């Protein structure tokens, strides 16, 4: 790996995403999304990878001091005064304190490049561990919102219900909607602000 290090704390290192990370990144999103990941679709995987590499988000691969890939972290809307930080870890790297260390390291380094009002952190209600961890870190709760997936599904459902499509198409979509919403609890997203005094 000859990439320039974006940030490191000696134990974890952030490197800008590159073609070297493709297989690791695809595996990460297979673990997160299971059989629904677009990286499993041969028609979509190249397009998805290109979008990640060339998109406006700043995406970094996380490696530990042994050179093992741990996951990915990103800054969404990096030019905003309230950008969002996201992080995803491989299953075997979760619940080891990596997320908070990396988020703080990323926030601190990115703040040097561009001071912001705060960083937005969004945590799924299905991820109770992360919610606890970020609250313990000092992230300030600012509310809840519908998950992006639920927003998309509700919009799609509305389009199907209000469009003149044949019954066969409607039945197939209703079956799919049922499969997607057949869960123990409705997902919501907790939003927090990570203010500079927490990470500087």
Describe the secondary structure blueprint for this structure.
Layout: E1 7-8, E2 12-16, H1 22-33, H2 45-54, E3 58-64, E4 69-76, E5 84-89, H3 98-113, E6 119-124, H4 128-137, E7 140-146, H5 148-161, H6 167-181, E8 188-194, H7 196-199
Helix pairs in contact: 5-6
List SSEs in N-to-C order. Answer: EEHHEEEHEHEHHEH
Task: Estimate percent helicity.
Answer: 40-55%
Alpha carbon gyration radius? 19 Å
Average pLDDT for all residues: 84
For this structure, the CATH topology of one domain is: Aminopeptidase
Number of strands: 8
CATH class of one domain: Alpha Beta
Largest sheet: 8 strands, mixed
Low-confidence parts:
none
- Side-by-side strand order of the widest sheet: 1-2-3-4-5-6-8-7
Count of helices?
7
Give the N-terminus to C-terminus distance in angstroms.
29 Å
- Identify the CATH homologous superfamily of one domain: Gcn5-related N-acetyltransferase (GNAT)
Name the structural class. Answer: alpha+beta
State the shape. Answer: globular
**Portion in strands:** 15-25%
CATH architectural designation of one domain: 3-Layer(aba) Sandwich
